[in-house]
Amino acid sequence: xxxxxLTLALFSLAACSSPQGDDPDLGDLAxxxxxxxxxxxxxxxxxxxxxxxxxxxxxxxxxxxxxxIGDRTDVRDxxxxxxxxxxxxxxxxxxxxxxxxxxxxxxTWGTIDDWVAAIAEYAAANPDKEVLFGYGFLASTFGxxxxxxxxxxxxxxxxxxxxxxxxxxxxxxxxxxxxxxNITQDTRDPVPxxxxxKRDESGDATGYLLEGTAEKAMDALDVINEDVIYEGTGIxxxxxxxxxxxxxxxxxxxxxxxxxxxxxxxxxxxxxLTVRLVGSSRPESQEDFADAVxxxxxxxxxxxxxxxxxxxxxxxxxGTVEGRTAAMFEDYQGEPGNSGETVFTEEQMTAMVTDAASxxxxxxxxxxxxxxxxxxxxxxxxARKAHPGSDTRYTICHVQVITDQDVPRFAGLDVIAQSTPLxxxxxxxxxxxxxxNQFQRFWRYKxxxxxxxxxxxxxxxxxxxxxxxxxxxxxQIEMGHTRQEYGEPDAPIQPRESxxxxxxxxxxxxxxxxxxxxxxxxxxxxxxxxxxxxxVVLDQDIFEVDPYAIHATEVLLTIMDGQxxxxxxx
Length: 570
Description:
Structural class: alpha/beta
Distance between the termini: 20 Å
CATH superfamily of the largest domain: Metal-dependent hydrolases
Number of domains: 3
CATH architecture of the largest domain: Alpha-Beta Barrel
């Protein structure tokens, strides 16, 4: 663990021992006098647990735990502190995010002038960088026209500049970047209406690149290399440990995919892979679907280590509400004729998920808009009929706007609904682009739960718009429970208030249900004898404190495979 990268303080608790000696049946680690919330229906709570090697061997009372404590047992008296299963982030980009560790990070809620000034300052501080790269702007701040190349040209005219937006669905480029990318009037849009170059009245590219065009630009400018990703990914994993995260679904690497295996191997060999990772391959279009499947097959065979493997096809099917690229049934407000576009037709989506089902490959579909979600559910229904015995698990991620008719289909088709709870605070940006009826159907967590659906939660870092704070499950839990800005009881509540989830449900979405999504529920996600010792110790009981104080909860210990990977002084 590279604590220097995070300036982490060490946390220690007094150890005690009993006279049992070196019996191999004794525990290596014991947590006693604790408030253990197991997420196991058979034994919901306990006050102690014991770990041997990498697994839990006892859950129960402190008195009974002492029988497994010997001279070499590391005993932590937690004085009533809350113990949970290690948190699982079900949608994050740690490897892609690693590439941004040294990039320019803009304040998402800043102004255009703020961002231009920050770009100028970054350029001055990095005179030797051939290409300036960053992320974080909010596209809706620019209005319907979007950002323009001239805004950056005014401060950096001589070098390519490429800035990804806060959701990584668009990019802001200057003229030098467009020239380096050979983007002209004659350059074809990859997917008109979805992945395209914003143009002015004369047909010239404005400098605003949408969806796949942004990703391809980042790759073409080679702004991220293997060493940068390796170092940055290690930093991100340390941050995740500091927030109590011990497992995660890597929802896709953008660009530089050839070095993923080497990066993961280097991290594991050097002891820095302290988060279990399940990865994915993704097609960008129907044309490269076969290649994406071939890559997924190759990766799940070849990219495999103790703490990482690949078994998922990630399919992006629409964009975002803020970018007006999420696929809806109604036109966006003020944009007649624009209801967003899906990347794939329903027939194409059906063919892809059915193919995945034939291979027992899990499927993770990006769909925010109601039309994209509806068509994806139709495709999954067809795949289930075609391969009823398949072990494929289907997840639709983000699920921002869902029709009444489609809510019960998640449970009926056993489709996991994955989302990021911090987005469920009041959305002043999304509100302006959709009808009132659609706005009232944002983030339907409780409706899905009441209909029997399985919900899982993650950060979507670095695309959440919340920076590294978005990596914190306790912040996410508070906002999923209140549907307000964290720590702000007087803030407006995201409609509908009835969509608030209980703390218990949100914890499940970050633990056992999350483990189910990762196909790892037999290994992690609850505190049970025989499961891996992935644990987090918190400084306060999130079930009992004021809900608006949950975000202030500190992680005291994060344990993965029975080893302390993060510790903090109380």
